[in-house]
Design a protein that fits this description.
10 helices; 187 residues; four-stranded parallel sheet; Rossmann fold; alpha/beta
C-alpha cells in the first residue's frame, strides 16, 4: 500500500517532525514502511499515553507496518529492581495491544532479540565508537545516573536497524537519542 505523503505531513497529522522530506517521500514510495515505538515496563500506565496511542493508530491506518517494542532490557538498565517485573511486562503488553486498539501492531519483547550474539556484537562496536560527551548531551544526567543510563541510548539506536524500521515514533524527549541513532547508525 502506497502511503500518502501529504496525509503524513498535514498540520496536526501523524508526523510532527521530519528530518528530511526526501526520506519520508522515499519511505512512502516503498512497498512497506515500518514504524516503531518503544515502551518501558517500569512506568505506571496513565491517560498521558492516549495521544500517543491515537498517533500510532493513525500510522497503522496510513499503511505502516507498526511495531511496538516492550522494552524489558532497557527498563532493567535504568531500574534494575522492579517488583513483579514479569507481571508488569505482561500487563504492559496486554494493555497496549488489547485495550488500546493496537491489535494490528506487531508486539516485540526487547529481550527476544537484544540478547542475541549478533545484537551484542553490534552493540559493542557501537559503544566503542560512541563519545561519552555526545551521550551526556542527550541524557538528563544527575547523581543517580548509572552506566546503564549511558548504554540505553546506544541500544535504542541499535533497535532501529534490528527491527528494520524506517520511521521511529517518539516524543520530543526522545529526539536526541534518534539524532544520535541517525549519526552513528549511518556510519
Amino acid at each position: 500500500m502506497k502511503i500518502q505523503v501529504n496525509q503524513l505531513l498535514k498540520q496536526g497529522g501523524i508526523i510532527t517532525e521530519v528530518m528530511t522530506t526526501e526520506e519520508l517521500v522515499d519511505c512512502s514510495n516503498q512497498r512497506v514502511c515500518n514504524s516503531l515505538w518503544g515502551v518501558s515496563v517500569k512506568g505506571i500506565i496513565h491517560l498521558g499515553y492516549d495521544p500517543l496511542i491515537v498517533k500510532q493508530q493513525e500510522l497503522i491506518q496510513a499503511g505502516f507496518e507498526h511495531k511496538v517494542i516492550i522494552a524489558d532490557v532497557h527498563t532493567l538498565l535504568e531500574t534494575p529492581k522492579i517488583d513483579q517485573f514479569d507481571d508488569k511486562l505482561n500487563y504492559t503488553h496486554s494493555y497496549f495491544k488489547d485495550l488500546c486498539g493496537l491489535q494490528e501492531a506487531k508486539f516485540v519483547i526487547g529481550s527476544s532479540f537484544q540478547h542475541s550474539e549478533e545484537y551484542n556484537t553490534k552493540l559493542s562496536e557501537l559503544l566503542a565508537v560512541t563519545n561519552i560527551k555526545s551521550v551526556e548531551k542527550i541524557l538528563a544526567t544527575g547523581s543517580k545516573c548509572t552506566l546503564g543510563n549511558y548504554i540505553y541510548p546506544a541500544m535504542q539506536a541499535l533497535d532501529i536497524p534490528f527491527t528494520n524500521t524506517n520511521v521511529v515514533f517518539g516524543g520530543s524527549n526522545q529526539r536526541g537519542i534518534y539524532m544520535y541513532a541517525r549519526e552513528v547508525c549511518a556510519n
